[in-house]
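Intended use. Records such as the Maltokinase entry shown here are meant for training and evaluating sequence-to-structure methods. They are not intended to support clinical decisions.
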Amino acid sequence: MVDVSVHSATPDPSVGDLLAAWLPTQRWYPGAGEVSVEPWLAVTFAGPDEDDADGVSGPLSDGGAVPTAEPHLVLLLVRLTGAALPGGELVAQVPLVLSDVAHTGLGHIGTITTQAGEVAVHDGGANPTGWVTLLHAMGVPGDLDVLTERARVLAGEQSNTSVFLPAVPSPSGTGAMLKILRTVADGPHPDVVVPAALTADGWDGVPRFLGALEVDPDDTEPVHLAILSELVPHAEDGFELACDLASRDESFVGHAGALGRLLAELHERLRRVLPPGPPLDAGRFVAGLRVRAARAVAEAPTELGGRADEIGALLDELERRLAALPAPPPTQHVHGDLHLGQTLYGDGAWKVLDFEGEPQRPVAERTAPDLPLRDVAGMLRSFDYAAAVGGAADPALWRADAAGELLAAYRRAAGLPPGLDEGTAEVALRALVLDKALYEVVYESRHRPHWLPIPLAAVDRALDPSP
């Protein structure tokens, strides 16, 4: 049994200097522009042969003891403050493995000199001691060499750190995936709550939830710091699979139909296992779309200025249709950030993952009930990019075939969205696709202007859906 302890963090200045140089180089680091970093809490761990967890934090906390020679994990929670951050403030998790210099290993950040001597500091997300300490804290037994056999950090992860652990025991014997959350929010984490509920309901459309590490700071709600789920065998990233098929000019229609059915099942299960949302406030819903559309037009006036009237007309039509319904449609829990990159295909079946939404947004916003068509729109936008990135011979046709089958399969399985008639559902989906495409236009205009034709074509299709 591992004892987990939480206490104030007061790092040695040398730790602060090291992290100040290292943090901005990490892809998951949310800081941009002028950001101040204030250490907040240190989470430490002690095994059955150690007196307590407070005595191993070394140069990071008020516990203050000299670090042991053997590598050990400390989770440092820091408050980030800056105008560019959502809400002006975030809490980031920085897992650090500390050791003497003789035990320098994977993920080495640097060596600091303290009053007690030299300490090697490692990125705990890239170090086996960090992985195994988290596994033990979540109740997974086993020795380091056994649990980390063939383990590796997944490349390309931007918001968190995910570790592939095929030797970790699991119900199906396939191993486990450890996700270390880099942005920490108060209260239950949606990527714990939703997969846990779906797994408990027996649904196999998500990787099986195996556990999570939760700590309880004295002055705030409990927070989740790491999540463990069962490894999906022989899995391919959904976006990479779609791009590969497009590159060979092979149809995605069969997979699109399977994804449509999966999405319908997901929405039905979410209605069953999580509390219902309130009736849709149509005025507020459309107002949110208007605000985001106006911001996009203002930030990309060359590309969108000439389309502003048509954008307003579509949103006017949606507002009229929603107001004419006999009753407001219900809302429900949805994925919220669904696209092909949030899916896996393995052993002939699709699975949905990553229910956390945008990590830098407040949990209340990320988990707000919504129309299920929000997820449909997100998946449709993925097909455009897969066709273009993959280099399909006829990207428009490849996308149209996949999109048509996804919508048909979803409709066959789910029927009309609850509370919407066919015409209103069609206009609502167009508006939600437009909402995503406008965001993409702004992003591409800033970062990848040669890709602007992809979202601009989607904007035009949403505004004029006629063939």
